[in-house]
From TrEMBL, chain A:
It is found in: Cell membrane. It comes from Lapidilactobacillus mulanensis. Signal peptide: none annotated. The keyword Zinc does not apply. It comes from the Bacteria. PANTHER family: ATP-BINDING CASSETTE SUB-FAMILY B, FATTY ACID ABC TRANSPORTER ATP-BINDING_PERMEASE PROTEIN. The chain crosses the membrane at residues 20-47, 78-103, 157-174, 180-197, 272-301. Residues 33-323 form the ABC transmembrane type-1 domain. Residues 379-613 form the ABC transporter domain. InterPro entries: AAA+_ATPase, ABC1_TM_dom, ABC1_TM_sf, ABC_transporter-like_ATP-bd, P-loop_NTPase, Type_1_exporter. This is ABC transporter ATP-binding protein. Gene3D superfamilies: ABC transporter type 1, transmembrane domain, P-loop containing nucleotide triphosphate hydrolases. PROSITE patterns: ABC_TM1F (PS50929), ABC_TRANSPORTER_2 (PS50893).
TrEMBL record, chain B:
Residues 17-297 form the ABC transmembrane type-1 domain. It is found in: Cell membrane. This is ABC transporter ATP-binding protein. The chain crosses the membrane at residues 21-41, 53-76, 131-150, 156-178, 246-264. It comes from Lapidilactobacillus mulanensis. Its main location: membrane. Keywords: ATP-binding, Membrane, Nucleotide-binding, Transmembrane, Transmembrane helix. One of its GO terms (molecular function) is ATP binding. PROSITE patterns: ABC_TM1F, ABC_TRANSPORTER_1, ABC_TRANSPORTER_2.
């Protein structure tokens, strides 16, 4: 769908990196700087340790062997000083690893919380345009890789860079000539590293792509497994699976081969370097071309050991940093998505005199005073046009006037715009032109939360939360007492099956309530709306999965409930809406007929055709 | 668990043996290099013997190159063996799942099977690759280095005899405290993911009831509980690095102190000291590596368990020996049939007896949960009866070849899905060899031909995954056509026309009657109009057959049937 690509913008990697660093450093400046300093100290101490070998041999061991009665006190002093330096290094390592562990988790929590908080204020259209799985993976995969980067890749990267700098300067101080040999090998190894990492990352990308295909196929076939079995289609499905699986194997083998070859190859390049240094060092020292003591050669050999590792580390970590930046981009994209507009001033308050629906709109006036308007449920659509995307119109010139307490039915084909019209009411979406008024107040002037508090919606697909049955019903109104919850369930005819559950109202609903039937879930959703006790109700195919006999009983309760409330009903079974005060027949976003049942039947138009089964709703 | 998984190695056995062999060669050479290096220093450098240096230098260079080739080849073979093993395992698991009965499928949820086939197998693949390479390498380097160190100087090697156990204990303590915390972290992640999933899916409900604030608090609580444990876990695991560094540094200093004294005493040489430094590094690093491998493996162990759990779950319904391959007609008989899910105690079907003759039209009506779907799913053996017997064409259904039985008992499930592909491809699921004429004929009976032709690409119109681009009613008609293409002896429609309008539905029924006169047709429906002209109507109530009769008989004598009928009549005739 092309709607999904609209919000996609690709900022530059470097911009993302800067923003990320700003976030990390900006949030925890002091600890971060402390960690970096500790990293530098730790790297310096490690290199100093290797250099110590040179002094040990040249300044102590060689002179001592020449003394008749060797005095070990200076050596002991030197070793103790070295021990102190090492200790500082160990402490520095301790400090930066601990800091990063804590920092990483704090940042992780902050990023998740920020993202979730922001997500709660995003408009519904965001969720229309992004797959559930896609949004979910930002909290899991993307945050995980990002945190990996902050708590591991970045410190290791910095550590390796400083290591390399110190190692090279240490080498130069020992012998510029041998350093030259090392640098040649260095360039060579960069070549190897780059070849291997570009290859492996190419195949990793292919592997991820192919993995997506395998997952997609598995997902589709396992979800339709019962149909596969009914049609004995297993052989064909197996064959197709093998095709995906084999391609995946190819990419996965290549990706892993190149990635894991890096370390043994770099390790052995280190060995080659080690050998070359010994040979060159030997030749140079013996021929006396340069002042090269035994100690320097030994120290140089030791340094060369810690040379190849940082190089492969740097390239590895760079790879994961690039990967993590892709995740960071997706996180920022969510955080940058514009939130719902809400500049309403009108609020809802309990009416002092307890009249009407017991609630009043509190409308601020230009002179600073506040006008009280009783909440009654009079809804008027006046020349309303709407489209989900700019330049596209889904609803055309909708004009409807609903009196308080009326039952309004919306009828039409799938995709005609019935749900869209009802979604305009609580401002899930913003209309393009025209106005909708609620008790004479433009709904855009009402604060969104207050507007939504004044209406309950039962949607076609019911969402339950993993908590008890009781809490799921109470979701409608947190202040509802247990008695009110149970009364609402009774009214929705849900109490029969609730009492059959192992722990009645206290039964935990697990996951998305998959162990309840669709019909039972709808009954809970209706109970939830009952408990909300609002002046306006919207029922969108609320009983579509409930069997006729139960529906009949629920209907009685619902009719009771609808008394005194403005209700919008979208129903597939026309029998349930014949008693409505107003029926709107919707077609391609237009209201083509409106009136009550008798009027529309007499008209012998579209409604008549639908009602008598001459025309289908599909 | 290991043995079950190992069955999937098969043709990759050779590679799986080759990889560790190469690793062992690489390790042996690698640990020998510092030893020769020590000699070069002592015999070449110290004695200014250039020939010695060049001679042994070239040998060393050769060794380094051989070791490089072995190491690279080991990675290559391990990666291929790992990917091959994972492919086999995925293949085995997928094939095994395809053999599952409905009862098996119900036991594992769809999404959990997907995770096992994807994430869990990837984890096992990584573990396997690690076992045949790293898990061989680390102990090998450790053993070889210890041997070489003792070889160079058994006195100085005693330093390791003290330090290795110390480091071992430190690592063990870190792991002991860290690992359980990680397990807790994973559990808490599940909770966090659940909160996100529910909120993303249920965002309309959250906004409708203005619960954003409460949901944010719920989420923050959950993310805090992760951060708390995770911080603890990470901090403990982070002790690893400084502990390692401390022990390595200590060994270097001890080596320097005692080594220097021995050199001065004339019992030791400088080059040997340099090689001891190398061994000290190798020994302690490989010990650390072992600890890491241990942690990694214990994480993938959970994945391995989850895969094996599925592999060990035996299909509850399998083909009989010497099966009957042919279904002669559409007679069905239920004798004292009881059925219940294995775990739950109360029966879903209770003592059901039925006799259906070939070619009859049977209607079934009853409340949600009265056992209608279970009843019909027993006929093609999607589930097996718990007690009693079901016969088709005079033979117990258990004696038929499953494919033959299911080809002859076509069933349109309540939530029948379409698969991504063209309409024609979807219809041909019923019969891959169907001609265009046969396909169009089936579509015509199911009243699908008209709307298919209205699509721009007709029968070649692409259906999206889950059939999202066709309406519910159209989807139902396509699934009926798909079943008709099987040319079955028995056709079962489980509430399959609920989204089709009554007029079209009536045309479908008429088509079935006229074009498939010999096929037994069983129709489950909520609407009495859909079944009122059936030869027998079965009224189900709480898992039992409450009544059987024709529409006229039932209206006369059955209270529940009459109630439903009156209600639907009244609604239909309100004008």
């Amino acid at each position: 769908m092309d709607t999904k690509t609209v919000t996609k913008t690709t900022p530059k990697r470097s911009t993302t990196l800067m923003r990320l660093l700003k976030f990390v450093v900006g949030t925890y400046k002091a600890p971060f700087i402390m960690a970096v300093i500790a990293i530098i100290i730790s790297a310096a101490a490690a290199v100093e340790g290797s250099l110590f070998l040179q002094r040990l041999i040249d300044d102590y061991i060689v002179p001592l062997t020449k003394q008749k009665s060797p005095n070990f006190t200076p050596l002991l002093q030197a070793i103790l000083i070295m021990a102190a330096i090492y200790l500082v290094g160990v402490i520095a390592t301790f400090v930066f690893t601990q800091t990063m562990a804590i920092l990483g988790q704090r940042l992780q929590k902050k990023i998740r919380d920020d993202m979730f908080t922001h997500m709660q204020s995003l408009p519904i259209i965001y969720f229309d345009q992004n797959d559930y799985g896609d949004v979910m993976s930002r909290y899991t995969n993307d945050v995980d890789t990002l945190m990996q980067m902050i708590s591991q890749s970045i410190p290791q990267f910095l550590n390796s860079v400083f290591m390399l700098i110190f190692v090279i300067s240490g080498m130069i101080s020992l012998s510029p000539m041998l350093t030259l040999v090392t640098l040649v090998i260095f360039l060579l190894s960069i070549g190897i590293v780059r070849t291997l990492t570009t290859r492996s990352s190419h195949y990793f990308k292919e592997q991820q792509k192919q993995l997506g295909k395998v997952n997609g196929f598995v997902e589709e076939m396992l979800n339709g497994l019962k149909v596969v079995k009914v049609f004995s289609h297993e052989p064909a499905v197996k064959k197709e699976f093998d095709e995906y699986n084999d391609v995946y194997q190819y990419d996965s083998a290549k990706a892993n081969a190149y990635a894991t070859m890096l370390f043994p190859i770099m390790g052995n390049v280190g060995n080659v370097l080690y050998v070359l240094i010994a040979i060159f060092g030997g030749i140079v020292a013996i021929n006396g071309w340069s002042v090269l003591t035994l100690g320097s050669i030994a120290a140089f050999l030791q340094l060369s050991r810690s040379f190849s590792q940082p190089i492969s580390q740097i390239s590895q970590q760079l790879n994961s940093i690039v990967l993590a930046l892709a995740g960071a981009e997706r996180i920022f994209q969510l955080q940058d998505s514009p939130i719902e507009v809400d500049d309403g001033q009108v609020t809802i308050v309990p009416a002092a005199d307890g009249t009407g629906n017991n609630w009043n709109w509190q409308v601020p006036q230009t002179d600073g005073s506040v006008k009280q308007v009783p909440v009654e449920g009079r809804i008027v659509f006046d020349h309303v046009n709407f489209g989900y995307l700019p330049g596209q119109t889904v609803l055309h010139d909708i004009n409807v006037s609903v009196e308080p307490g009326q039952k309004v039915a919306l009828v039409g084909q799938t995709g005609a715009g019935k749900t869209t019209i009802s979604s305009m009411l609580n401002r899930f979406y913003e209309i393009n032109s025209g106005t909708i008024t609620y008790d004479g107040i433009d709904i855009r002037q009402i604060r969104k939360d207050d507007l939504r508090h004044s209406m309950a919606i039962v949607l076609q697909s019911t969402n339950l939360f993993s908590t008890s049955v009781r809490e799921n019903i109470r979701y409608g109104r947190l202040s509802a007492t247990d008695d009110e919850v149970e009364k609402a369930a009774e009214l929705a005819h849900a109490e029969d099956f609730i009492n059959d559950l192992s722990q009645g109202y206290a039964t935990q609903i697990d996951g998305d309530g998959s162990d309840l039937s669709q019909g039972q879930r709808q009954l809970l959703a209706i109970a939830r709306a009952n408990v909300a006790d609002t002046p306006v109700m919207i029922l969108d195919e609320a009983t579509s999965s409930i069997d006729t006999r139960t529906e009949r009983m629920v209907q009685a309760g619902m009719d009771n409930l609808m008394k005194g409330r403005t209700t919008f009903v979208i129903a597939h079974r026309l029998s349930t809406i014949a008693n409505s005060d107003l029926i709107l027949v919707i077609d391609h976003g237009h209201i083509i007929e409106q009136g009550n049942h008798q009027q529309l039947i007499a008209k012998h138009g579209e409604y008549y055709q639908l009602y008598t089964g001459k025309k289908s709703l599909n | 668990m290991i043995r079950t998984l190992m069955r999937s190695i098969r043709q990759y056995r050779k590679l799986s043996i080759l990889a560790p062999t190469l690793v062992i060669i690489e390790c042996a050479i690698e640990t020998f290099i510092p030893f020769i290096m020590g000699n070069i220093i002592d015999n070449g450098l110290m004695k200014s013997n250039l020939n010695y240096i060049i001679h042994y230098g070239l040998i060393l260079l050769l060794m380094a190159i051989v070791s490089l080739i072995c190491g690279g080849a080991a990675s290559w073979t391990a990666a291929h063996a790992g990917a091959g093993f994972a492919t086999n395992l995925r293949h085995d698991l997928f094939y095994h799942i395809q053999e599952f009965s409905f009862a098996n499928i119900d036991h594992f949820s769809g999404s959990s099977l997907v995770t096992r086939l994807t994430t869990d197998i990837t984890n096992v693949q990584n573990a396997y690759q690690m076992i045949i390479r790293m898990a061989v390498r680390a102990p090998m380097v450790l053993i070889f280095s210890v041997i070489m160190a003792f070889n160079v100087s058994s006195q100085l090697a005693l330093i390791f005899a003290i330090l290795v156990p110390i480091l071992g204990v430190i690592l063990a303590v870190i792991l002991h405290f860290g690992r359980p915390l990680f397990r807790q972290v994973f559990r808490r992640y599940d909770t966090l993911n659940r909160v996100v999933r529910e909120n993303v899916r249920g965002i309309r409900v959250v906004k409708t009831y203005v619960r954003e604030g409460e949901e944010i608090n719920k989420f923050k609580k959950s993310s805090k509980s992760i951060a708390d444990v995770f911080t603890k876990a990470q901090r403990i695991m982070s002790l690893n690095a400084p502990a390692m560094q401390l022990v390595i540094n200590a060994s270097l200093l001890l080596l320097s102190w005692f080594g220097a004294q021995m050199i001065v005493g004339g019992t030791f040489q400088t080059g040997q000291l340099v090689s001891m430094y190398s061994y000290s590094n190798s020994i302690l690093f490989s010990l650390n590596m072992l600890a890491m491998i241990f942690t990694q493996l214990s994480i993938s162990q959970a994945s391995g368990d989850r895969i094996v759990e599925v592999l060990r779950d035996q299909p509850t319904i399998i083909d009989p020996k010497n099966p009957i391959e042919k279904v002669d007609n559409g007679d069905i008989e239920f004798q004292n049939v009881n059925y219940s899910f294995a775990e739950s105690r109360h029966p879903i079907l209770n003592n059901v007896n039925l006799n259906i003759k070939s070619g009859q039209v049977i209607g079934i009506i009853g409340e949600t949960g009265s056992g209608k779907s279970s009843l019909v799913q027993l006929i093609p053996r999607l589930y097996d009866v718990s007690h009693g017997k079901i016969s088709v064409a005079g033979h117990n259904v258990r004696h038929y070849d499953l494919t033959a039985l299911r080809d002859n008992v076509a069933m349109v499930l309540q939530n029948s899905v379409l698969f991504s592909g063209t309409i024609a491809e979807n219809l041909r699921w019923g019969n891959p060899d169907a001609t265009d004429e046969q396909m169009i004929r089936a579509a015509k009976i199911a009243q699908a031909d008209d709307f298919i032709n209205e699509f721009e690409d007709g029968y070649n119109t692409h259906v999206e995954q889950g059939g999202n681009n066709v309406s519910g009613g159209q989807q139902q008609r396509l699934t009926i056509a798909r079943a008709l293409l099987k040319n079955p002896k028995i056709l079962i429609l489980d509430d399959s026309t609920s989204a089709v309008d009554t007029h079209t539905e009536q045309q479908i029924r008429q088509g079935l009657r006229e074009d498939l006169p010999d096929t037994t047709k069983i129709i489950i429906s909520q609407r009495i109009v859909s079944i009122q002209d059936a030869d027998q109507i079965i009224v189900m109530d709480h898992g039992s057959i409450q009544d059987v009769g024709t529409h006229d008989e039932l209206v006369q004598r059955n209270q529940m049937y009459k109630e439903i009928y009156d209600y639907q009549q009244k609604a239909g005739e309100d004008n």
